[in-house]
Amino acid sequence: MRITGPLYLILLGLLISAVGGVFLWLMWRSYDRAAHQRDWSEVPCRILQSEVVERRIGENVPVEYAHGLLYGYEWVGKGQTSDRHTLRGASWSSSPAGAAELVEEYPVGSEQTCHVDPTDPEMAVLRLDSKGPGYSLWFPLLLTVGGLGIVVGSAGKLLRGAGEGEKG
Fold first, then answer.
1. In the predicted model, what is the mean pLDDT of the chain?
2. CB 42 within 8 A of CB 89
């Protein structure tokens, strides 16, 4: 009996399952973090700085733009500041349009609502992360289960072939 085909399929199934498992873990982690943010406290805050900032990280690299943000809030009687729009912080882009939209959305001096992590009051965001990855967990789960199905099917074929070889 030739075992190279089933072995190849077992390895392929393990690889597919591992890739699915990694993506499943990453998406679950994003969903879980976003779900826990829903427990953060909402407090009023004032925008202290809101501007388009630019950077150039090299002579031959085009200029990148982001939203420069600073806001102040009070937590248990103590003044705090944060510069995070979202948990991931400012995202840089080759176009200033996205940052300019955020400057308009959060003008200096405006009152906003920020979300403060009660376990770490220095961590605050204006916008909570999306729980969207939790609604897409089925896809990497499908890869993981499908890969394991390939492994089980190929291993069964391999074992059936080994058993037939002993009888004949």
1. 91
2. no
